[in-house]
Design goal:
This protein is of the alpha/beta class. 28% of the residues lie in helices and 26% in strands. The strands form 3 sheets. Strands 1, 4, 5, 6, 8, 9, 10, 11 and 12 form a 9-stranded mixed β-sheet that branches. It has a two-stranded antiparallel sheet with strand order 2-3.
Length: 232
C-alpha cells in the first residue's frame, strides 16, 4: 500500500514561521512535523510515500531526500508555489500512487491514528464498492460544528440532517483512485465536494478516533505539539 502526505500548504496562519520554512519542516520535538508521519508510516509497514509540495518545496526534498533515513522511499509531486488544493494535488500525483486504494495524511497534524489499519480499510473499499474511508475526531475549538456526520453503521454523511454525530475530519483517509476520476491533474480542486458527492451516494465509510489528534495550524498549536512530543 502507498501513502501520500499533503505538504503543499502555504501555512498563512503560521506566519512568520513559514516565511522561510515550509510548515511540514517546522520542528516538533526531535523531528520536523512531517518526520513523525514518516516514522509511523514505516512502523506500519507503509514504505512507499508520495509527498506533494508547493511553497518552499525544494527545502522538503533537500531535507527528506529519498526517505532512507526514515526507512521509506519518497517520490515527490511538485506543484509550483501556489499549490493545487487537496483534490488537485492528489489527482496530479495519481501516476505515482497507482491503481489501488491509498492512504492520504495531512502533513500539518500530529496524531496517533493507527496507519496500519489503513490496509484493512483499503481492502474493504473495494469489497464494499466504496470510494473513501475517513478518520473523524471530536470537534476542536476552532471547528466546533464539525464537518461530517458519522452514523451508527459507520457511513459518513455530509450533514447532521441525515443522522449521526457531527465530527471533524482528521485530514486522514483511504481513497480509491476512482474518487478522482473526473478531477483533472495540474488544476486546483477541493476535496470536500468530491467527498460530499460520494457520501450522497453512500460510498464513504468512517470511524471516530479517540486518541491524539492536533491540527498544527498556528504558532500556539505548534508549541502544544512540541510539548506533546517531548519525551517521545
Amino acid at each position: 500500500m502507498k501513502a501520500m502526505i499533503l505538504a503543499a500548504g502555504r501555512g498563512e496562519r503560521m506566519r512568520p514561521l513559514t516565511d522561510r520554512h515550509p510548515k511540514p519542516l517546522l520542528p516538533v520535538g526531535r523531528e520536523p512535523l512531517i518526520g513523525w508521519h514518516l516514522r509511523r508510516l514505516a512502523a506500519a509497514g507503509i514504505r512507499e510515500i508520495v509527498i506533494n509540495h508547493a511553497w518552499l518545496g525544494r527545502q522538503i526534498e533537500e531535507t527528506l531526500q529519498d526517505g532512507a533515513a526514515y526507512g521509506v522511499s519518497i517520490a515527490y509531486s511538485a506543484e509550483g508555489e501556489k499549490g493545487l488544493e487537496t483534490a488537485g494535488g492528489i489527482a496530479t500525483a495519481l501516476p505515482l500512487l497507482g491503481s489501488e486504494p491509498f492512504l492520504v495524511v495531512n502533513g500539518d497534524v500530529l496524531t496517533d491514528i493507527d496507519f496500519a489499519a489503513a490496509k484493512q480499510q483499503a481492502a474493504a473499499l473495494r469489497a464494499q464498492q466504496r470510494l473513501a474511508h475517513l478518520w473523524l475526531v471530536g470537534n476542536p475549538e476552532h471547528n466546533p460544528n464539525g464537518d461530517f456526520a458519522l452514523a451508527e453503521n459507520s457511513t459518513v454523511h455530509s450533514g447532521s440532517g441525515q443522522g449521526g454525530q457531527m465530527l471533524t475530519f482528521s485530514g486522514i483517509g483511504v481513497y480509491d483512485p476512482a474518487l478522482f476520476a473526473d478531477t483533472p491533474p495540474h488544476q486546483a480542486a477541493k476535496l470536500a465536494p468530491l467527498l460530499r458527492a460520494a457520501m450522497d451516494a453512500g460510498q464513504v465509510s468512517g470511524e471516530a478516533h479517540q486518541g491524539l489528534w492536533l491540527d498544527v495550524g498556528t504558532p500556539e498549536r505548534l508549541a502544544e505539539a512540541d510539548r506533546l512530543a517531548q519525551g517521545w
